[in-house]
Amino acid sequence: MQTVEPADYRDLALASSPAVSPGGERVAFVRTVPRDDESYEATVYVAPVGGDEPERFTLSEGVDAEPTWSPSGDRLAFVSTRGEDDDRQQLWVLDADGGEARQVTSVVGGVNSITWSPDGERIAFLQQVTREDRDEDRDRHVDSEYEPEEPDPRVIDRTVYRAGAQYTDGRRTHVYGVDLTDDAVRRLTTGDVDHVGVDWVDTETLYYGRKVGEDPDDSLTIEIFEQDLETGTETSLTTDTSWGTPLRATSDGRVAYFHTPAERSTLRQTEVRVFDPGTGTTHTPTAGLDRTMAYDADICWGHDEERLYFPTPEAGSVVLRRVRWDEGESADDTTIVAGSGMHLTDFDVGRDVAAFAASEWDHPGDVFLSTPGGGEGTRLTRLNSGYLDDRAVCQPEELSFENPDGDEIQGWLLTPPDFDPDETYPLVVEVHGGPHVMWSPSDTMWHEFQSLAAAGYCVFFCNPRGSAGYGEAFMAAIERNWGAVTSADVLAGLDAVCARDSIDAENVFLTGGSFGGYMTAWLAGHSDRFRATVAQRGVYDLLGFYGSTDVAYKLVEGDFGTRPWDDPEFLWEHSPAAHAETIDAPTLVMHAENDFRVPIDGAELLFRFLRKAGTPTRFVRYPREGHELSRSGEPAHVVDRIERIQRWFDGYSDYRDVPPALERDRDAGLSAAEDDAE
Predict the structure, then answer these.
(1) Is residue 78 classed as helix, strand or coil in its secondary structure?
(2) Which tens digit of pLDDT belongs to each residue from 375-399?
(3) What is the DSSP code string of 217-238?
(4) CA distance 329 to 352
(5) What percentage of the chain carries pLDDT values higher than 70?
(6) Which letter does DSSP use for residue 396 in this model?
(7) 550 alpha carbon, distance to own chain's centre
(8) What is the mean pLDDT of residues 257-278?
């Protein structure tokens, strides 16, 4: 049987965005697989609930997203980049019986967050456009030959002017509607403001959120509006604080959304709230639940519009919960519907069927079915069955250990496929990002962890204090002290694992990305336990990070309770770069050049410091990539990153008869070099 290799990433398909048809007979979803070294193919499939094989529903051209059934179930809308020279998504509509899809929009800002009107005659959506686009009506229709000019120079007058891997360049997010009888696009909001979330109440009423405040970029305040489409009248419903999440309306006008307290916001959990305009009251149905919302979460009303569904991290799983909209005084008021033992990413809930995309320890992701009331789920797809049938996949062993303060910490140990308890093995320690997220034994790092195990390494990962999924106090325990608190937990887990005879405590390696990159450099500067480290896309200088990141400067204000001009010495002391001169372990620094969440200047600083200190080091920069490199970067870069991590560790391992990477050709041992040679 073959083992999982880094290059196998090119063969792995992932499922996302499940959508239950109104009758509950079918589920649409997006299947994504690498097309070539630089791009992906993302195609809409439809699977019968009865269990027959999924059918490809759209052309394998471009990248499709957001499949959404019409209210009657006779059509399927989706957004796609097909036919575009860039990544602008346009709206397409396809007959539910199949056939050729019809392109509905051609707009300059692209289309996202689509939602059908209750009568199925219109679709509302969001797009991001400039004032000039609106003045020239390019936000309603643009010729297919139009190419926007790249600003030269860029003139910046906003606090947050770039995000992900792109500059906003004066664009603002606005609400639009398109009439499917003539494909006419109507602009519904305007002005130098951004909107978040849009949903229909009835055929003539829309709800949407707007970022407000003295400086909306620097504010969590969201104002929710109602618009009467016949008159264009806009009415303010309620104002709250949120990171800018989706909102979902009921047919009688109640609106659900996510709420995060503004004070110490990065350390606080996100709740579900419902505003009822009929009574003017706001309900918090998750008030008794000591869990935050999952990363990139959505929210959904049940068919009866009495219950809400949402995902939460839950001690190593990401689960789907439901709660009555007007209850929530205790944790017992919420029910786990699906996802226990899984890592759930997307979901949809119909009258009789709940569909969700999730991974488990033995596969990287498929679509599952449950009932809206919960119960044992069934697996609807097996997208990677052909690949997995011939691969040795290792099951992580769950661990529980105490940190120095007596807290119980959850972790996992993954061993090689041919593991022999009478032999000894090198160990890789992986630290997650966030910091307020959570590892699970079946999440997006499935392929990386399995590849390292197949290469002969045991892999240890855990959820130290600061992680989500264990309550707000646990999440907030790293306040003003990221490094020392997290280190205590990671090292306690390392001690527990190294107590096993099968783990070679002299051959321990360390890596992590984002906050995990911060912790990699911090641990390397404060511990001699690691033979070599790989620091990925990390925050190494909190002062520089504050000024160069997108919205994540709020982590400095919230988690550390200060700003660079208030206490620069404190922030520098808590920056890994300040301790770089004590790093002896050979350290590979990896970063994405278009990472605007954790910009590359911090990696440049760390690398320069390591060079000046005489530490064996190398800097690998990935062009065109943003902060999501490890999860959705160009396929060749995803593979290259894992192979370089493994090669770096191999060079300092007593279990590999190879010289350090610095003594070899820069591309020696990498699959890309082998392909070029062929």
Answers:
(1) strand
(2) 777 999 999 999 999 999 999 999 9
(3) GG--EEEEEEEETTTTEEEEEE
(4) 27
(5) 98
(6) P
(7) 16
(8) 95
Which strands make up the sheet holding 26-34, listed edge to edge?
A: 14-20, 26-34, 40-48, 55-56
Sign of the C-alpha dihedral computed for residues 441, 443, 444 and 446 taken in this order: positive
Contacts of residue 210, defined as CB under 8 A and 6 or more positions apart, other chains included, come to 189, 193, 194, 195, 196, 222, 223, 224, 225
**Tens digits of per-residue pLDDT, 293-328?**
998 899 999 999 999 999 999 999 999 999 999 876
**Does the structure show a pLDDT above 60 at 273?**
yes
Asked whether residue 677 carries a pLDDT value surpassing 60, the answer given is no
Q: Using CA atoms, how far apart are residues 502 and 570, in angstroms rounded to an integer?
A: 41
> Collapsing DSSP states into helix, strand and coil, what is residue 163?
strand
Burial class (CB in 10 A: 0-12, 13-18, 19+), 133: buried
pLDDT of residue 99: 86
C-alpha distances out from residue 139 to 108, 126, 132, 133, Å: 5, 11, 9, 6
Instruction: Name the region of 430 (left: φ>0; alpha: ψ -120 to 50; beta: rest).
Output: beta
Q: How far is residue 578's CA from residue 456's CA, in Å, rounded to a whole number?
A: 34
- Tell me the three state secondary structure of residue 116: strand
Question: For the chain, first and last CA: distance in Å?
Answer: 25
Whether the pTM exceeds 0.85: the reply is yes
d(CA 550, CA 449): 29
Q: What is the largest CA-CA distance in the chain?
A: 77
442, pLDDT greater than 90: no
DSSP of 446-506, one letter per residue? HHHHHHHHHTT-EEEEE--TT-SSS-HHHHGGGTT-HHHHHHHHHHHHHHHHHTSTTEEEE
Strand 425-431 and strand 458-462: the pairing is parallel
Question: What's the confidence (pLDDT) of residue 676?
Answer: 56
Q: Yes or no: say if 277 and 253 are a contact pair by the CB < 8 Å rule.
A: yes
Judge whether residue 244 has pLDDT over 80. no
Q: What angle do CA 277, 279, 284 make, to 5 degrees?
A: 80
User: Region 143-165: what's the mean pLDDT?
Assistant: 88
> Is the pLDDT assigned to residue 329 strictly greater than 70?
no
* 155-161, Cβ contacts within 8 angstroms, sequence gap of 24 or more: 158/217, 159/215, 159/217, 159/218, 160/217, 160/218, 160/550, 160/551
Amino acid at residue number 18: P
Computed over every residue of the chain, the mean pLDDT equals 94
To 10 degrees, what angle do helices 515-526 and 482-498 make?
A: 70
Are 299 and 310 in contact by the 8 Å Cβ rule? The answer is yes
Alpha-carbon 572 to chain mean position: 29
**Residues 558-588: pLDDT tens digits?**
999 999 999 999 999 999 999 999 999 999 9
* C-beta separation of 230 from 204 below 8 A: yes
Question: What is d(CA 631, CA 634) in angstroms, rounded to the nearest whole number?
Answer: 9
Q: Six-digit token pair at 610?
A: 């390591």
Within 10 A of 214 (CB to CB), how many other CB atoms are there?
Answer: 7
- Among 221, 165, 226, 166, which residue's Cα sits nearest to residue 193? 221
